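quick q for whoever's on today - can somebody do inverse folding on this one?? i tried earlier but teh output was garbage lol. tokens:
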């Protein structure tokens, strides 16, 4: 069973992601809060001008090519490279503004999620340096104690993160070329998946990344992949492209997800079904009777194709909802013990429990309370879960 360490009621216990969500889903939807997205958009544009002038790594914005990017997302650029391989535990960025070898490229026309060079690399968005308050304030509706104390983090250098979650099709390419057997397959026990008839989670033999218990197309986020599987994917991607891919740190993830907003969600509390595939009215038939669901319909009971919902102000899709995403960071129950202030990874030397890693962003099976930029859980590195996938990052 997937191990999980979580918040106030379950800290230190080990249980499945689904079990955690069962508890969380029963909590009421938080009230609306002031939406600061518009202000953030203006600041984003200002910072963008500075960044474009300062950083040679910013080039043609993918969004400018396909018309799908918001203004602040103009900072985005899909990048490829030819750097050496071997994924680091800790980001080793080069000085700001310098790229690794290789010319930047843009997304495929009409496809924001795939690089235009056709080598299988995901489209990447360059995220500029900046500061943000990581975690949630104690006043945030729906907050869990794992999200505090809120603390200031400075991101000293740009980095890149994939515009979308890694898809079934992208993961399939990795499997085809390597013959790799995922954790769910190798153990023979399968993935922890949702049984809609029993309205319960169970480890189901025969379920894995290509059969997570519900129908998926190649453009859906891959799930039922363990942290170990995700690491193997980024190793392969690095070797294949010559660029140094890795999973994002937890701080990188939250900085990218917030995209200059300090609200619980980058879309405020308005129209959640426009921005995120979560637990909406469409999922009433699979959700437990007492679950709190969004008061709207996003039209996807399970995963949705990536890149279809409105992106955040950095041009990133599905940062909330669709699939939880693995990060590099070792699990820690809160930010009380000397959290890294520079966006770097939280490892054992910081007191982290590295047999578990932090997951972020919520999924198709989570209501509004979980779909917040600060919410976080931990899952065992070998666990495969039908809610859990990943996106990739690169130091620049
Ligand atoms: Ca949904």
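ok took a stab at it. sequence:
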């Amino acid at each position: 069973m997937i191990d999980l360490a979580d918040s106030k009621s379950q800290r230190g216990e080990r249980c499945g992601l689904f079990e955690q969500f069962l508890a969380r889903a029963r909590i009421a939807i938080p009230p609306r809060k002031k939406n600061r997205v518009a202000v953030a958009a203006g600041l984003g544009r200002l910072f963008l001008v500075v960044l474009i002038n300062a950083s040679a790594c910013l080039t043609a914005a993918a969004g400018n090519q396909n018309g799908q990017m918001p203004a602040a997302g103009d900072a985005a650029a899909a990048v490829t490279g030819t750097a050496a391989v071997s994924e680091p535990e800790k980001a080793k960025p080069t000085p700001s503004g310098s790229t690794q070898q290789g010319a930047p490229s843009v997304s495929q026309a009409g496809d924001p999620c795939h690089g235009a060079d056709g080598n299988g690399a995901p489209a990447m968005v360059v995220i500029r340096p900046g500061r943000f308050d990581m975690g949630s304030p104690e006043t945030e509706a729906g907050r869990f104690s794992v999200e505090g104390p809120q603390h200031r983090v400075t991101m000293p250098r740009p980095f890149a993160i994939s515009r979308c979650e890694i898809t079934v099709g992208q993961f399939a390419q990795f499997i085809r070329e390597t013959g790799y057997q995922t954790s769910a397959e190798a153990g023979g026990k399968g993935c922890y998946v949702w049984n809609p008839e029993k309205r319960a989670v169970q480890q189901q033999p025969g379920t894995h990344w290509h059969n997570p218990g519900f129908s998926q197309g190649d453009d859906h986020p891959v799930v039922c992949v363990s942290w170990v599987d995700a690491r193997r994917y980024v190793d392969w991607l690095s070797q294949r492209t010559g660029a140094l891919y890795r999973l994002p740190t937890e701080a990188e993830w939250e900085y990218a997800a917030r995209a200059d907003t300090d609200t619980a969600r980058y879309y405020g509390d308005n129209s959640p079904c426009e921005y995120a595939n979560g637990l909406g009215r469409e999922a009433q038939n699979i959700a437990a009777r007492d679950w709190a669901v969004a008061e709207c319909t996003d039209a996807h009971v399970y995963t949705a194709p990536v890149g279809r919902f409105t992106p955040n102000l950095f041009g990133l899709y599905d940062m909330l909802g669709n699939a939880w995403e693995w990060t590099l960071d070792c699990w820690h129950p809160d930010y009380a013990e000397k959290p890294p202030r520079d966006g770097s990874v939280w490892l054992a030397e910081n007191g982290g429990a590295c047999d578990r890693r932090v997951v972020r962003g919520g999924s198709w099976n989570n209501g509004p309370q979980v779909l917040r930029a600060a919410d976080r859980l931990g899952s065992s590195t070998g666990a495969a879960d039908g809610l859990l996938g990943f996106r990739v990052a690169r130091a620049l």
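fwiw Helices lie at 17-25, 37-54, 62-66, 168-178, 183-186, 227-241, 250-258, 272-275. also Confidence is low (pLDDT under 50) at residues 1-15, 25-105. so keep that in mind when u check it
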